[in-house]
């Protein structure tokens, strides 16, 4: 019979006591806010990720849509939620812009949330109807130059990456066009196809329509050409030194217990690379961008600095 050494016996309380005193987590479903409408790129991708994370956590991760206000309603809901790990939200980059665009911010991104995990980013594109007269972004820009303010473009909302990037393009090209904000992709694409707006700037939920020939992609916004659209130039190739992917992660209310943050972080990082979820990422030309909680929190500080500079350069204020 092998007896434990005295050193091993002395070490046991240090290893087991904290675990014995901790309540298990999770023991009930977790609510995950998606601040965009059902059926869009984010909704489809987040539901695949939630399903994969549910298997790892042993409890359902239930996606709840909170669309509107440019994607900040999920973060806003966290302000009144308990910091117990059972309520978390996607944090689109518009969350970090909201306090920079408004004189009365709804929240402080650096102090009001607990950052859990960074996950991925989007493929964005400038899209027109298949029968539009413009075959390139350059042709669209030239038309806008000859007709100031006449070209209308739709985005998922004021203050989103789509809105600010389109305004940055306009500023650099010396043109004016008119922004039309929507609650999400579904409204945006319906307006484009009905001829109510001229241009759509949105994430790659437009890809199936482009492959069917119903819309034309003038430019994608990533660092290199999209895998499924190798013939479409990037913004850089179209004359604008701009890359926009609007990376995102998940956060919870301020004051979450570090142990619970680690459990959620590890589950979502593992789920990120689940084969079923990777298929969804590939379908939307999205790529994994994993960061743990500490690295994500540091990245938020960088994002806030860069967004402040961009918003100051564009001179945009909402209130």
List the helices and strands and how they pair.
Layout: H1 6-20, E1 30-34, H2 41-57, E2 61-65, H3 73-78, E3 87-91, H4 94-101, E4 113-120, E5 124-129, H5 137-146, E6 152-155, H6 161-173, E7 178-181, H7 185-193, E8 199-203, H8 207-212, E9 215-220, E10 248-253, H9 258-272, H10 275-283, E11 288-291, H11 293-314
Helix pairs in contact: 2-9, 2-10, 4-11
Characterization of the model:
The chain is 41% helix and 18% strand. It is globular and about 70 Å long. The N and C termini lie far apart (76 Å). It contains eleven helices and eleven strands. Helix 4 packs across helix 11. It is an alpha/beta fold and 319 residues long. It has a six-stranded mixed β-sheet, sandwiched between helices. A five-stranded mixed β-sheet has the order 7-6-8-5-9, sandwiched between helices. The chain folds into two domains: 28-121 and 247-314, D-Maltodextrin-Binding Protein, domain 2, CATH 3.40.190.150; 124-220, 3-Layer(aba) Sandwich (D-Maltodextrin-Binding Protein, domain 2). It has helices at residues 6-20, 41-57, 73-78, 94-101, 137-146, 161-173, 185-193, 207-212, 258-272, 275-283, 293-314, and strands spanning 30-34, 61-65, 87-91, 113-120, 124-129, 152-155, 178-181, 199-203, 215-220, 248-253, 288-291.
């Amino acid at each position: 019979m092998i007896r434990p050494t005295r050193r091993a016996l002395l070490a046991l309380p240090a290893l087991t006591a904290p675990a014995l005193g901790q309540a298990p987590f999770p023991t009930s479903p977790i609510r995950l806010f998606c601040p965009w409408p059902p059926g869009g790129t984010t909704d489809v991708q987040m539901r695949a990720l939630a399903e994969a994370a549910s298997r790892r956590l042993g409890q359902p991760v239930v996606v709840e849509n909170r669309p509107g206000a440019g994607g900040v309603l999920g973060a806003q809901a966290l302000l009144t939620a308990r910091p117990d790990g059972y309520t978390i939200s996607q944090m689109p980059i518009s969350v970090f812009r909201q306090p920079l665009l408004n004189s009365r911010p709804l929240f402080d991104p650096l102090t009001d949330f607990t950052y859990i995990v960074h996950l991925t980013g989007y493929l964005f594109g400038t899209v027109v109807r298949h029968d539009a007269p413009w075959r390139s972004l350059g042709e669209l820009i030239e038309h806008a130059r000859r007709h100031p303010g006449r070209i209308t473009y739709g985005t998922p909302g004021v203050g989103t990456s789509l809105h600010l990037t389109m305004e940055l393009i306009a500023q650099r090209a010396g043109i004016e066009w008119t922004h039309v904000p929507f609650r999400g992709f579904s409204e945006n694409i319906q307006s484009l196809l009905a001829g109510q707006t001229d241009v759509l700037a949105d994430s790659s939920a437009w890809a199936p329509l482009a492959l069917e020939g119903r819309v034309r992609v003038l430019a994608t916004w990533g660092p290199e050409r999209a895998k499924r659209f190798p013939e479409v130039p990037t913004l850089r190739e179209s004359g604008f030194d701009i890359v926009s992917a609007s990376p995102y992660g998940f956060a919870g209310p301020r004051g979450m217990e570090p142990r619970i943050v680690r459990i959620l972080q590890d589950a979502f990082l593992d789920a990120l690379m689940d084969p079923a979820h990777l298929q969804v990422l590939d379908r939307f030309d999205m790529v994994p961008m994993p960061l743990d909680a500490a690295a994500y929190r540091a990245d938020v500080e960088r994002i806030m600095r860069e967004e402040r500079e961009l918003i100051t350069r564009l001179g945009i204020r909402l209130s």
